[in-house]
Design goal:
There is one protein chain. The protein is α/β, with parallel strands linked by helices. The chain has six helices and nine strands; from the N terminus they run H-H-E-H-E-H-E-E-H-E-E-E-H-E-E. It has helices spanning 5-25, 33-46, 61-68, 80-89, 127-136, 174-183; strands spanning 52-55, 73-77, 95-97, 110-116, 138-149, 154-160, 163-170, 187-194, 205-211. The strands form two sheets. A seven-stranded mixed beta sheet has the order 3-2-1-4-5-9-8, with helices on both faces. A two-stranded antiparallel ribbon has the order 6-7. Helix 1 runs parallel beside helix 4. It is globular and about 45 Å long. The chain starts with a helix and ends with a strand.
Length: 214
């Protein structure tokens, strides 16, 4: 089967920037109380009920953070370069290469799924398939937490983290993501939209928490 162009572009771009991305964002969580608050809520709701997948984990910075809060967590990322960086940074945790569009996970195997800015490179017409895949791997009662930039714009990133790259990015509307969750059989429990934090953020940021019905 031919791989979709957007998947290949995303992998190539993140392989290129993996090490510099990991270095530049290693302390970003410490500067964002909103991120920590939402992740903390996710941790409290999931608890010790089962394994958690950090899906689109990048260099594992949030995987490590969730593990430090007591979750049984592993990471999956499309980019082998990112997975290598994650394994170096967190040698005691498990990281695998994989695609959100076809996760190598059994049905109903995760108590929690984190998709932290990992939906933003998927074209909108393909996004319902990804959300359905995230719902598929959750156990009844399992939670999905996703974060993304708010808007209707799309654009091509040609320079990032000190490298020349070619990467498409899409801002998303919370109502549209919520509708995809509902269509996939999830119940939206909460959503939060906050203003951008300069200088890196240019648009409002959204968090959406959904639950698979028991």
């Amino acid at each position: 089967m031919t791989e979709p162009v957007h998947v290949t572009k995303t992998r190539n771009a993140y392989d290129t920037v993996a090490d510099s991305y990991a270095e530049m964002l290693k302390d970003a969580l410490a500067a964002s109380p909103w991120d920590r608050a939402m992740l903390g809520t996710f941790v409290e709701l999931v608890g010790a009920s089962g394994p958690v997948g950090d899906l689109g984990c990048g260099p594992g910075r949030l995987t490590g953070y969730l593990a430090s809060l007591g979750l049984d967590v592993f990471g999956v990322d499309l980019s082998p370069g990112m997975v290598d960086a994650a394994r170096r940074a967190h040698p005691r945790l498990r990281f695998e290469v994989g695609s959100l569009e076809a996760l190598a996970l059994d049905d109903s195997c995760l108590a929690g799924a984190l998709a932290w800015y990992s939906l933003i490179h998927t074209p909108p017409e393909h996004l319902p398939t990804v959300v359905a895949e995230l719902a598929r791997v959750l156990v009844p009662g399992g939670r999905l937490l996703t974060a993304f930039q708010v808007g209707d714009e799309s654009g091509q990133i040609s320079h990032g983290y000190g490298h020349e790259i070619s990467l498409d990015a899409y801002r998303l509307q919370p109502d549209a993501v919520a509708d995809m969750c509902t269509t996939a059989g999830l119940e939206v429990e909460a959503r939060l939209i906050r203003e951008p934090q300069p200088p890196l953020e240019k648009s409002p940021q959204a968090y959406l928490l959904a639950r698979k019905p028991s």
